[in-house]
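Q: You know discrete backbone vocabularies at least as well as I do. I have my own habits and do not want them to colour yours. No explanation is needed for now; the record alone will do.
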Amino acid sequence: MIRDQETLNQLIDVIARFVRERLVPAENQLADENRLPDDILREMKDLGLFGLTIPEEYGGLGLTMEEEILVAIELGRTSPAFRSIMGTNNGIGSAAVVFNGTEEQKQKYLPKYASGEWISCFCLTEPEAGSDAASLRTTARREGDHYVLNGTKRFITNAAVADTFNVMARTNPDIKGARGISSFIVERDCPGISIGPVDKKMGQSGSLTSDVIFEDCKVSAENLIGAEGEGFVTAMKVLDRGRLHISGVSVGVAERLIKDALDYALQRQQFGKPIAEQQLIQAMLADSQTETYAARCMALETARKRDNGDSVSTESAACKLFSTEMVGRVADRAVQIHGGSGYMSEFAVERFYRDVRLFRLYEGTSQIQQLVIARNMIRAAK
């Protein structure tokens, strides 16, 4: 489904060089300062990275899913926090507008997302609603030509720097499940929004998450995405794509970790020879390479099916489950191959070990992916 192989190759080469020459050298600065350097942010915008998946008619590149996976793999070769700042504009922060927004909404928001002028974020998780997202409590009460939002969202990526919030809220309190939930675009200057302190996390320093609190926040009815009650269904479509994207990122991180571990094993001497010549080290390298290759094949095959118009709910969940668990194992082996050095912050594997732990949690935990897969299997069998 790749439309123009030569153009895609050029794009991949440009991104790979940018990652190698600009992002990798800035990894420690990002981690130490917990913020993206301004010059790198400008370069990311100039490269078009904020509009990779946004349709071309709205200023983006309009990548297919397969093309997006290939780009995600390249971006995965450096700190995940670099990808995080532009990831919401390409994924969960904009996809609902792309999938289900009005033409007026698309014209207003998508070009600004694509250029990076505006940063978007996705507000679904709450203090009492995470994996069970259908139990969310944030409400949106209709009052004339406005909705009034009340509630708190938790762990919201890019909330501290976002210009718009894609908010899931319950518009029909009589419907307790997913069908009572609607989706809204809320702009940052809307009265009634407040942002909590930046969270202190285990890893992914530089990727900012915070609580977002809505207190009698008035939002124009024009900012409802789709019809009332469609918000959660749209969110699940968004997450299907997001899970594939994270699979690609996981492959890229794993390939980076394998390279770092192999380079170290080739130069580290023990028992009179490089540890790469020790069979137990070779086994860890081989297992990592094999699992990473399997994850790459899964993600690309599923992406091609999605581009072909097939339903890939089960396959996306399987990719996310396998790829994120896989990169956790690869990170663990990379630390083991580095030995005591792998526990030291001067080596990137120590940071990646903490960073990749999040992959198994967000956009649906591994256990949620297992439930999605099994339920889809049972439904198909019936």
